[in-house]
């Protein structure tokens, strides 16, 4: 009980210097993103640049983006950010949009906009949208939030969205089609031109999710990289989401959504005219937006310029190419699909090499890597910073594969067993419920750590601590076995 008592509001305020010193100790268990050990979530250059962003952010941290007519500075940042973004995405002068708090808000807004547009323009009452199975999870969240049914577009044998299956999914309830540039799991750019032709033919809006690619693909192209068309140059594309806080190297809390014209964007807006507090209008999901996010995003774009972004893209793609080639040279591994960069996924073709066990080995060597499923794999979101550590990463990866091949039992231990079970057990509803139970546990009063794996390293067989992901998987495994026995009986 001592621990909980410590988090009460202090009776007397503490000196600022003491609080700030305390603050610094909080990050001791965080990943070391400053030295290229993290392969998602962070886009870091160096301490000088981080300090520059912090200064820009704090200069406007007290400004509020709620009402664009009050803080004119923030609307000016927004106008200039959107104008620069539209130009980068080869938009016409009519392209317009808003700065949002992140990729999820940008994706949610597109679904809400196209649902309301279809409602108003075509009288659609049972809205549906077409998503490739590789669409970012934010789109599935939007489906749940806004009650827009998902129709899934399968992948072809190269793990690309199968455009030959698209037309049969379109019907009069289709409010939008989604393509990604690139999609997150494998770094593939969906066939946007082919999507665009069908979207135009059927009069359905096409959104391109370039949350990852929006601020790096254009600079890769400027550097001479051959890429398929994916932006406003494709006539059917009606909107694009692109995150400034990814490869735009802005401070966290900055994304954009742009539309081909204002007629579409209007459907995103919310107006309530009868509130006792006055007539209210809002362009996006959030009310208050911290002005710092706008200022830091604007500052990042001004400071980097085309030259800075081109240099970052050059280093990023050099790292990507080196990684792709290096993985291809490790016996038993393969790179998934046909990634355009700067992301890729890789898996194992050697039955003796469990890719999740390889991930566990990489974890012990201090790398933080995400897991993929359908097919099983490991993931890398590559930044310029990773160029410095690429040789070390590939060296460790080669060693990890050798260790797993020599010790196939590692596939049954630790997180490899957990991820394998999570990915392959057919009872998906059960997996969902169990994960929800665990995840919710982190938010119980007082908070709790979500311990993924039993400290003993006992793995699935040895009786994991309750409250770990291992324990959850043990329960799942037991349930699955009884289910199978029942079916056979």
List the helices and strands and how they pair.
Blueprint (H helix, E strand, L loop, with lengths): L1 H4 L10 H10 L21 H13 L12 H17 L7 E5 L2 H20 L5 E5 L4 H10 L2 E5 L20 E7 L11 H11 L3 E4 L7 H6 L14 E7 L11 E5 L2 H4 L4 E3 L7 E3 L8 H38 L4 E3 L7 E6 L6 H10 L5 E3 L4 E5 L8 H17 L7 H11 L3 H14 L27 H20 L1
Parallel strand pairs: 2-3, 2-4, 4-5, 5-6
Antiparallel strand pairs: 1-7, 6-7, 8-9, 10-11, 11-13, 12-13
Helix pairs in contact: 3-10, 4-10, 5-6, 10-12, 11-12, 11-13, 13-15
Helical run tally: 15
Total strand count, please? 13
Helix content: 40-55%
Structural class: alpha/beta
Distance between the termini: 49 Å
Order of helices and strands: HHHHEHEHEEHEHEEHEEHEEHEEHHHH
Q: What is the residue-averaged pLDDT?
A: 91
The biggest sheet amounts to: 7 strands, mixed
Radius of gyration from the alpha-carbon trace, in angstroms: 24 Å
The shape is globular
* Amount of beta strand: 5-15%
Low-confidence segments, given as residue ranges, are: 1-5, 454-463
């Amino acid at each position: 009980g001592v621990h909980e008592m410590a988090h009460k509001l202090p009776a007397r305020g503490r000196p600022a210097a003491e609080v700030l010193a305390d603050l610094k100790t909080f990050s001791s268990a965080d990943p070391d993103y400053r030295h290229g050990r993290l392969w998602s979530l962070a886009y870091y250059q160096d301490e000088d640049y981080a300090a520059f962003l912090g200064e820009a952010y704090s200069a406007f941290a007290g400004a509020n983006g709620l009402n664009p007519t009050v803080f004119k500075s923030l609307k000016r940042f927004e106008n200039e950010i959107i104008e620069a973004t539209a130009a980068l995405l080869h938009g016409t002068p009519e392209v317009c949009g808003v700065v949002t708090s992140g990729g999820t808000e940008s994706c949610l807004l597109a679904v809400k906009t196209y649902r309301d547009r279809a409602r108003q323009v075509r009288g659609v009452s049972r809205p549906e949208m077409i998503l490739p199975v590789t669409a970012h999870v934010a789109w599935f969240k939007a489906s749940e939030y806004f009650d827009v049914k998902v129709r899934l577009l399968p992948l072809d044998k190269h793990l690309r969205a199968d455009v030959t299956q698209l037309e049969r999914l379109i019907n009069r309830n289709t409010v939008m089609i989604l393509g990604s540039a690139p999609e997150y799991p494998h770094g593939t750019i969906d066939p946007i031109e082919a999507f665009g032709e069908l979207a135009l033919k059927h009069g359905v809006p096409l959104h391109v999710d370039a949350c990852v690619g929006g601020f790096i693909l254009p600079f890769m192209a400027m550097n001479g990289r051959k890429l398929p068309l994916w932006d406003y140059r494709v006539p059917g594309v009606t909107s694009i989401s692109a995150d400034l806080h990814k490869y735009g190297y802005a401070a966290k809390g900055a994304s954009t959504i742009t539309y081909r014209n204002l007629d579409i964007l209007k459907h995103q807006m919310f107006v309530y005219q009868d509130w006792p507090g006055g007539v209210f209008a809002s362009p996006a999901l959030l009310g208050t937006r911290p002005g710092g996010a706008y200022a830091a995003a604007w500052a990042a774009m001004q400071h980097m310029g085309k030259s800075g972004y081109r240099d970052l893209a050059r280093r990023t793609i050099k790292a990507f190419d080196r990684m792709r080639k290096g993985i291809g040279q490790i016996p038993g591994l393969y790179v998934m699909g046909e990634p355009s960069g700067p992301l890729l996924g890789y898996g194992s073709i050697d039955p003796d090499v469990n890719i999740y066990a390889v991930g566990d080995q990489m974890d012990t060597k201090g790398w933080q890597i995400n897991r993929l499923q359908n097919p099983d794999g490991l993931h890398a979101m590559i930044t310029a910073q990773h160029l410095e550590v690429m040789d070390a990463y590939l060296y460790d990866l080669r060693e990890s594969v050798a260790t797993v091949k020599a010790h196939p039992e590692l596939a049954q231990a630790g997180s490899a067993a957990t991820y394998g079970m999570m990915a392959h057990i057919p009872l998906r509803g059960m997996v969902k419920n169990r994960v929800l139970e665990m995840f919710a546990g982190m938010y119980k009063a007082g908070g709790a750590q979500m311990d993924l794996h039993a400290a003993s390293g006992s793995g699935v067989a040895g009786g994991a601590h309750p409250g770990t992901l291992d324990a959850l998987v043990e329960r799942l495994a037991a349930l699955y076995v009884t289910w199978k026995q029942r079916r056979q009986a």
